Amino acid sequence: MKRQTYPLRDGTLSALHFGEMSEPVRLVFLHANGFNAQSYRAVLEPLGVHAVAFDMRGHGQSQEMPQPSNLPNWHIFRDDCVEFFERHLPNLTDGRVVSAGHSFGAVSAILAAPMIKEKLSGYVGFDPVSVPFLFRLTSALPGGRAYMKKRVPIARNAGRRKSVFENPEAAFARWQGRGAFKGMGDDVLRDYISGGLISRPDGQWELACDPKWEQAIFAAQWHNLFKAAPALPDNSKIIYAGGRPPVSSRGTRRAVQTAQPNMDVQFDASLGHLFPFIRTELATDLLREVLGAA
Prior knowledge:
The chain is an alpha/beta fold. It is built from 13 helices and eleven strands. It has one domain (2-293): Alpha/Beta hydrolase fold, catalytic domain (Rossmann fold), CATH 3.40.50.1820. 38% of the residues lie in helices and 19% in strands. Helix 5 packs across helix 6 (153-159) and helix 5 (144-151) packs across helix 9.
């Protein structure tokens, strides 16, 4: 695992490379909201291919990138992904790659697909957030996002997250086996902490992803992955999970499948939204399957 930085139009993107860096890149991975690239080490490292996972804007070590105060949708993350593919990927491979992501990252990769489809050999989405039209429309209405931050549980709770800790071990003790981290292995949690906490001048540690930024992302739903999905390669797989509440519905899953009839869209109610952190071997196998067909 090696960290590299990549200049973009308005800042610097920090990325982790897994596998042998002398080999061409085969996979580009985008993480879930509030997490970071290193959180997926247990998923990406066993693949044995050169994979790149970057810290999305406002996450992990990508701290120099501006975070707009009024975020209506996820297009800014789409544009970051597209710029990386167009500006930096040609230096890492002369072939096509598999794009993949989890949750918000999975959606960002779909949104980017129409602009980078010539560079894609496959796609894997771990429970991409696929919400109905009226929920998305709320983000576009006056006062809609403020309402969502107060009334949508996942957004409301994100904004209240404790963000400052005495040291990384204090964060580990607070999160181990609790809340969203229940069922997560200790090594995975330590990877999340290692990639997601930054030191402060006063000697304390804080979340690299500001809880208010995480909250803003949850409330910014005025984008259309259904319109972008037809650009995904036929060698694509989406695994939707259950969860309480789920981030998809029967109707939105059907809409995604209709948008790209040739890709494999599955739903497994036994999985929770954060299953890549709990069922790491399953996540690795799903990526390996699409890589093998690329």
